TrEMBL record, chain A:
Protein name: ATP-binding cassette domain-containing protein
SMART domains: AAA
Keyword match Translocase: yes
Membrane topology type: Peripheral membrane protein
Residues of the ABC transporter domain: 5-233, 280-512
Originating species: Lysinibacillus halotolerans
Record's GO cellular component terms: ATP-binding cassette (ABC) transporter complex
TrEMBL record, chain B:
Keyword Cell membrane set for record: yes
The organism's place on the tree of life at top rank: Bacteria
Organism: Lysinibacillus halotolerans
Protein name: Energy-coupling factor transporter transmembrane protein EcfT
GO cellular component: plasma membrane
Record InterPro entries: ABC/ECF_trnsptr_transmembrane, ECF_transporter_component
Amino acid sequence: METFLGCKKLFIRFYNRSEQSLQNMTLSINKGEKVLILGPSGSGKSTLISALAGIIPEHIEAEVSGEVFSRKNVGVMFQDPDSQFCMLHVDEEIAFSLENRSIPRNEMDKMIADLMVHVGLNVDKRTPIETLSGGMKQRLALACLLALEPEVLFFDEPTAQLDPKGRQEIFDLLHQLSKKTNQTMVFVEHVLDGCIEWMDRVILLNDRGAVIADGKPIEILQNFQKEMEEAGIWRPRVFPEKWVEVVENTSHPLSIKLSNILESKSLEKLKEVDKQELVIHTEKVDIGYGKKTIVSDINVKIRKGEWVSIIGQNGSGKSTFLKSMIGLEPIKKGQLYFQNKELNKWSDRELYEKAGFVFQNPELQFITDTVYDEIAFGGRQRNWPKDLIETKTLQLLKEFGLERYRDAHPFTLSLGQKRRLSVATMLLFDQILLLLDEPTFGQDEKTANELIRCLKERQELGTTIMMVTHDMDLVDHYSDQVILFNEGKVMYQGPPNGLFSNEKMVQECRLIPPLHYQLMHERRGLVFV
Amino acid sequence: MKPNDSFLASLNPSCKLFTHIFVMFLLMTISNPKVTLFIWILGVFVGIFLGGWRIAYLFKRLVPYLGFSILVFWMMAAFGEGETTIWKWAWFHVTEESVTNGLTIALRTLGFVTYGLLFTSTTDLTLFIMSLIHQCKLSPKCAYGLLAGFRFIPLFQSELNQMRTAHKVRGYKQKNSWKAFMRYSIPLFSQGIRKAERIAIAMEARGFTGTKERTYYQTTQVVTKDWAYLCSLLIVVLALMMVE
């Protein structure tokens, strides 16, 4: 039988690299199969699906040897929602796919309308693409791919840039679609929750681009735990267990584990931070940018050594709030105090010796040409003595595991290293406040954990951490205080326990609470039924 | 470029552009300030009656250029050359010839701006590019490339802003503007190139070949009212030129 999709003895090397990205890959995927490809970053996962989709060598040049069995009509969804569109409005974008297939004009309107319904894109068809949310953009991207009537759909980390709710929606949509059409789908992902449950097959690659495991999801998860951990793949929270069983059966091992966590949470005494000095406090502050006010009447107190998580949906004003706290965005109304002194009475120089800010995209923050200079920059600006700069910088390099890269250009580091460097640059003056905008976003589990460990150590030394995040496990595990923004106001302010236990608020603000709280809510529901 | 619901917005973009460029060309050949003034006023009237301009919009857009053209006028008038002196003080030397020249140049600039605005304020970008394909025979490869490029502009702006604030926190001071430009532009360009590459791959992966063998969702045609607009505007302008 002829192979539906796959490759035989495939080697791929990019012209700008000396090593091969894929080595001796032999693979065969059947029609209708849902395949998940896993592996550490740099293992050639993306290269593999690009080759299977025919993008390599047709659109990306590379040295290819071996055989590839590709289909003629395929669709590929990429991770960055923004860089897969070329038009300005929703209908034009879908039409672009149809135009390429030379579909007659009079059939287009109906097809576009049908596709939009199909992917749940319920907006006006003349909506400008830039105004859509990330999840909506990925729905549009899917509509554009389905317009190609592909035999195979490829997904290159389609949810890496989405928040947890958006991710869940996209996976649900794809699951529905796969049930309806039995489409062949090939995924590359590093977050397994939401997709591993309905995959037929998992292929695990090692860091040199060779297959180390190929089989049913359960088998791979059970037998290759160590390899997956090393690859930095976020472990699924429930799979291979079934959530219904966990909820109904109180003696289920996972159920017991979760109950224990919940119990220890409720026993946990709140840290006595009340006596600590105030770092930031606000009185009736309104924030916004341009002429728009986004959140009004904010009254918060942030004390020394606290870990504060700021959560809310995209566009709810989290990032603006963070920027406003140290004057990167002017406040609209009210009073804002930094260390009991009004913020606007601080000079920039003094203020940024006390507070550091880590942006979402670390690249925009780098100023110099080597990692060492990057950290030493602030000290040099202030004419510190040479040996002081040296000791401080070396200490930070060590703390953040960057010693080996001291002479490297910041741009050549990996994403995780870049992020750690951007944090390190903000700690040269032992800043008492560190603000971070989604520091673990789009990272694999290993690098994310390394960063959090560094931050935790700093917090124990007395640094105040304020962080915008979508990772609710992180919120639950570390924060002393949670600030939740919803629809232009502060919905909740206090310890994470109180927020996640409140089922109504969790649903209203479209949060996905940590598993043990989900269990609690569902059990509660069962009792009443 | 965002269109409104006016008559001008319903015209074929390429045809409209051609008409306006032709008027601008005629403006260049006129050295009489009175005729230039009339043609400029004509442009403003077209904007109000056919282009859906509100008075508020007119002020917001034209006042800055008005200031600029007054400056141009003063430069030309006070330092120009000529025989018949009207007024002379210190190094200012205003002559009849220089006043005429100054007025012409100043009004010409205003005219250019007005006819340019008439186009940009009433044209949809996508339709304009489509009409370049259909009427001006631009290859789809360039046209769709252009469209994809336009999406970058707001992106660049937001990235530049982010970079500015990031540098502010780091205590980076702009000592020399050329250095600051290099500082900001290299990361912006490297990101831009990476993004452009990704978009190109995504477009090709969706079956875009750049050839003319494709259908079009949006097509533009030149119809009677386009010719009517072209002819009537040109006739009025030529008539204004003849009268003097």
